[in-house]
Write a structure and sequence with these properties.
alpha/beta; seven-stranded mixed beta sheet
């Protein structure tokens, strides 16, 4: 669906609107997630009352995850609650969104208090580029002994704690996520992020099956990236977290490891990109899918699929008319094309049965598709014959959303040893390992 306002940019180039301001500024809903933290919540609500954003354009919703006693909120602040059934940050954020009236959503945790310019700075890019997900700078301070109405922009620096090095280094290395890639979801933190209401709905909200600490924000951010999100870190949008980061709050090192493992194992089955999934185990969702459209000779189909999986052993191959039985019956990587199956990061549509050898340059280009300088890639033989076209899921979503305005970047690569198969290739030389191109093309 096309956004109700704004425009887009190529790739992740939010810097192209670095000096622009929305006109008009959008309505905003700040959703504050809370559980049994009345003092921290009071501090955060006091900080929100001091925002320099127009009060007529800002709504505040407290979303309570089943506290024993309903939190006390000032007049003009909305309160929604759900029953206590474990740590359900994803569900309570979704609940908060149901009460939201703003065009832009800002998410904060109850123990994370924003400086006065926070809302204005966080909402600027989403108001201009509605696919943007912004993440603020979460700093840390010992605030428990400070008055809840103390100006956070002075109380925070006066009692600051170290910032998480892994996070600040990632923002510096990626130029505030301008150089984001498929693993940059790790730098979108649920305590301080924003997006448009339209895009939150496009993504499908947060996954409410998460019921332990952590992971729900990363899974959501990964889905957002795959359907075209623009990631941006806004370093001058500062929110102060009361106390150290999560690792510093866990006194028991074994419990810290246990919780970290629970999160990593859960995400490895949902985020199939390198560095997030297992190195040998197949993921439920494939990273790359090859699709063969049309009906072809069983021999040509077999050689094509066999060669593809030899070159790309963790890919999935989908056939329009199903797999020749029983040749592929035992291989879960080969299946019929199913529009309802989970979408892969990269989809490669084959021009027909082909042989694509294991080529490092091709593999690297496919890994970077949609994150670097290319959104789509035309794959050719060394003789110039078009064999396939690879499309990133991001590109497909952007094209559907914006049409010609999507500014999709298309590249091309020629692969030595790649060629189209003849209609009836000889299978025996292929499986025997002594086939040359003359047997197959």
């Amino acid at each position: 669906m096309r956004p109700p306002f704004g425009t887009t940019v190529p790739g992740n180039r939010w810097d192209l609107v670095a000096d622009a301001a929305p006109n008009p500024w959008p309505s905003v809903t700040v959703i504050v997630t809370h559980f049994e933290q009345p003092g921290e919540l009071a501090r955060t609500l006091a900080a929100l009352a001091r925002q320099d954003y127009p009060a007529a354009l800002m709504q505040v919703v407290v979303a309570d995850d089943g506290s024993a006693v309903a939190p006390d909120v000032p007049s003009g602040v909305d309160l929604v609650r759900q029953e206590d059934r474990g740590f359900r940050a994803a569900a309570v954020r979704n609940l908060g969104v149901t009460r939201a009236t703003g065009d832009v959503l800002c998410f904060l945790d109850a123990d994370t208090s924003p400086e006065p310019g926070y809302v204005r700075r966080m909402t600027r890019l989403p108001a201009l580029l509605p696919e943007t997900v912004t993440v603020g700078r979460r700093r840390h301070a010992e605030l428990a002994e400070q008055p809840v109405d103390a100006p956070i922009e002075t109380a925070g620096p006066a009692h600051r704690l170290p910032e998480p090095a892994w996070l600040s280094e990632a923002y510096e290395r990626s130029r505030d996520l301008l150089d984001a890639d498929d693993r940059s979801y790790r730098y979108i933190i649920g305590a301080a992020f924003a997006c448009t209401r339209w895009f939150f709905d496009e993504i499908g909200g947060m996954d409410e099956s998460f019921d332990e600490y952590g992971g729900e924000d990363w899974e959501w951010a990964h889905r957002a990236w795959q359907i075209g999100a623009i990631f941006a870190h806004v370093p001058d949008a500062v929110a102060w977290h009361d106390g150290p980061e999560w690792a510093g709050r866990m006194a028991d090192p074994e419990e810290r490891v246990r919780r970290g493992n629970v999160q990593t194992l859960l995400l490895s089955g949902r985020i199939p990109v390198d560095g997030s999934r297992g190195t040998g185990v197949l993921s439920p969702v494939a990273d790359i899918v090859f699709r063969l459209h049309g009906r072809f000779d069983d021999a040509a189909t077999f050689v094509c699929v066999d060669a593809l999986l030899a070159a790309f052993p963790r890919a999935r191959v989908e056939l329009e008319h199903g797999a020749p039985a029983p040749v592929f019956a035992a291989d879960p990587r080969v299946r019929a094309i199913d529009p309802a199956s989970p979408a892969a990061r990269v989809e490669v549509d084959l021009a027909g049965p082909v042989v694509l050898p294991a080529d490092q340059a091709l593999l690297e280009r496919l890994r970077a598709l949609g994150t670097g300088d290319e959104d789509e890639l035309e794959i050719r033989s060394s003789e110039g014959v078009v064999l396939a076209r690879a499309v990133s899921r991001r590109s497909r979503a952007r094209r559907a959303r914006w049409g010609d305005e999507a500014a999709v970047r298309v590249g091309s690569i020629a692969i030595d040893g790649a060629f189209p198969l003849r209609p009836h290739p000889r299978v025996e030389p292929h499986v025997g390992g002594w086939a040359g191109p003359d047997h197959l093309r």
